[in-house]
Write a structure and sequence with these properties.
heterodimer; A: alpha+beta; f41 fragment of flagellin, N-terminal domain; three-stranded antiparallel β-sheet; B: about 625 residues; alpha+beta; five-stranded antiparallel β-sheet
Chain lengths: ~400, ~625
Amino acid sequence: MRVTQNMEQTQFLTALNQLESTISSTQNGLSTGLSFTTASQNPVGAGLVSGYNQVLAQSQQYTANGQSAQGSINIEDNALTQVQSQLQTLRSLALEANNATESPADRSAIATQVQQIQGTLLSIANTQDGSGDYIFAGYATQTQPFAASATGATYSGDQGQRLVQIGAGQTVVAADNGDLVFQQIKTGNGTFNVTQGPGNTGSGIIGATTVTNAAGYNGDPYAINFTTPTTYQVVDTATAAVVGGGTYTSGQAIAFAGLSVTLSGAPAALDSFDVTPSTNQSVFTTVQNLANALQQSSTGAASEATLNNSIANAINNIDQALGQVQTVQSSVGARLNTITTQQSVATTQQTQLTQSITTLQGLNYASAITNLDSENTTLSASMQAFTLTQGLSLFKYL
Amino acid sequence: MSNVFGIDVSALQAFQQAIEVTSNNVANANTPGYDVESIELATAAAQSTGSIPIGAGVVVDGVQRAYSQAAANQLITSQSSLGQLNALQNYTSQIDNLFGTTAGGLTTALQNYYNGWSAVADNPTSTASRQALLGDATALASNFNTTSTQLNNLNTDVNTRITSDVQQINSISAQISNLNQQIVTSTGSGQAPNALLDQRDLLVSNLSQLAGVTTTSNSDGSINVFVGSGQPLVLDNNSYTLGTIPNQFNASQLDVSSTATGGQSISSAITSGDLGGLLAARTQAIDPAINQLGQIATAVEQSANAQQNLGLNLNGTLGANLFSVGAPIATASAANSDATTATLTISNVQALTSDNYVLAYNAGAYTLTDATTGANIPVTVAGTTVAAASVGLSVALSGTPAAGDQFLLQPTSQAAATIGVALTNPSGLAAAGAIATSAADTNTGSASIGTGTVLNAANPNLLNATTIKFLSPTTYSVNGAGTFAYASGANIALNGWQVQISGTPAVGDTFTVQGNTAGSGDNTNALAAANQATKGILSNGTISVSGAVGSLISGTGAQAQQVNTAQTAQTAVNTQAQSNLQSVTGVNLDEEAANLLQWQQSYQAAAQALSIANSLFSSVLSAVKGQ
């Protein structure tokens, strides 16, 4: 091929441009530490890195969510521990008051303590977190959930449970509502509740109540009616059908419809004991009922028995409340565990994602420096070659 | 004897001219478009002196320029392709740099926005986290705006360059036509006007960088030049001019017109050269990027607003729109024969694409064509409303259009530029679910009620309280009326909401569904908004917003990479074509030096011959003198 000086010049300049642009790109990589800084350098990689970064940011947000949930759950955990301790104290006081040796004055003093516990429980139920939100109000976190009333307390919150996202598709309950913790407490033994009739004149005392055959219990209310101090009838008050009866022996269990009720003492004729299915009763109502009962003056066996029955019923209900609080608290513990587990999973995931991003977009310094070196060598060689060939001219010899 | 002098003088003159031609070659070694010239020598006709004919010396036949039409055509074609790729690459690489690996920071802005919702969900009553979310939303919107502005600036730049290219092309065409006249005149006189031909070839070569051209030669030495698919620029001595006209649908974009076609747009025919590259950059790189960005902005706006509308804000009222965007654009063609206008609405963001569509009315029927793929989109027509459910669009026309009317539908082109945050008060963010459900504490059955979902936030009774009371374990009444059959887990829908009650209820059990107006601590809706980060929103619910951003990044990156590769390859092809032409027409200085030596020696030899003839003549003279 016939070569002209012009061709040499053009070709050299084109090559020089390309070499310099390659060197500039390698230098850019070295100064940023990235193998690509625009998508055109690695379209697939750029798309992947964008996806990884998004997952990474989300995972970090999940960790932050978990930490925030941990905070509020810890506050709830503390509150529930305090509730338990107050209920334990209450139970001891009730047992103490149920003692026949207690004078009305003693009981009145205990009633005052019970009222104080009621106040403490209310203030715990109205606990606010760091940002002033009521933790037991459900969704209505800016409404004080509980207010004292004549029968215990009224609830102004709702049944909402705030969920917090701690992982992809994984949520935990960040707060339990007050209705669940303080109000959805079954009376009696959790299945049924036995109370003495309002007009009882005898001294019959309600003892142990158990479900002997859950399948045999139809959920109807029943009444144990004494026709004489020694004979009784069991009536299904929903259907008015007589389902049992017999001769009364103090301390002997009366069994009917899958249930068993033990009565003791001396009931009078026409006394009755009502067996009703358990309903929800607020712990505040239970406490208020106990305080009210303790302030009744008891004179004689009949009113002593009424008092005993009231206190025993209150103790049953307190036990139910304790059970409810313990159940909630164990779920709180489980949630804290879930968050901890999730956070360690998230940490591993974040490490892996960061590694993947580095693998994709990180610069291999060794090869980049080698490349830069070889590109520099090529550049200087081509410059030298150009100078040499340009120096060759026949005109020099003329 | 006198013949000897004649021969020598002819030789001296010829070699002197040869040295002049060589010197001219050396002088023009770096002149663009110069073709190396060589002198053509011939033997002068013999003069018969007696029986033996002896040559009468040398004559200069002419000066020939080295030229290869094939090599020149190859270079013209290659330059047009390179010109197109250079212009296109200029814009694809600008978009590539603008987007980088984060779509201009869009990925970060989106992450911050969704994480902002998550932070609100963590603490729904905190004004600080709500304010932060509004800040994130504003940053996201302005990121869309900024990127869109930068892309639109590229379109403005394209317009400027189209105008400047058209001016240059017109100027070159006029010069070629002028040279044609001079060449025709000079060719008539018998000698090739090499300098003029060189100039004309150079002009054609320059023209080919601006737009793909083809040339044909006429017998009188003039050439015809055509652009695009055969629109004439120069015919004999006449030149036609190109101009710019606004696009029939979008007055802000310039098309190329030609006086040869009566001022009609010839843009679609121009596919190579700088002009072709500019037009391609607009339709293949800039507009698609604006549309894709707009599609993402629309998805963010529509999904966020829909979620806002489903929830309650801190004031206990249904959430208002968080984002606003300008209405999608539908423009009537400037060529339409009546004034029918079209209004475009997006009916389903999930089906939305980033393409533009052309709606045409002909022979009483509407046809909708995808402007990018050319695919025909099925439409359903009701009166003057044309709905295309498969692409999530609906067009309302102001009346029945005239036959042949066309409308360009741009569902997404304006979204990225116009997206803004409509909400100013942080308490307006709807973090809470609209309804709250509860079971009465007096319930004795085992049935429980779910949290419920809002089906239609527009229902005016949505927030009304509703009591569901069980009349028996298998029937219930609503607000004390009616008897409805109960099935555990079945949907119960009313007033725009839907809930499930499951389990075994007891007689008298009641459940309440009511407006969650006091539920400032509820985060149900904020959680749902945060989860939109990974929810399939686009492409019929298969691609999340972040996924679409990823596709945008790799898509524009792949395009830039492909154009870069093509440009590098074409540069090599072009260098080769230049070398091929140079190899034939370029000046090799060494060659010229050798020629110079040759002519110098020949000249010296002829001079020597003249000297010998002179001495011969002197000998004769002295001999005669001596007698």
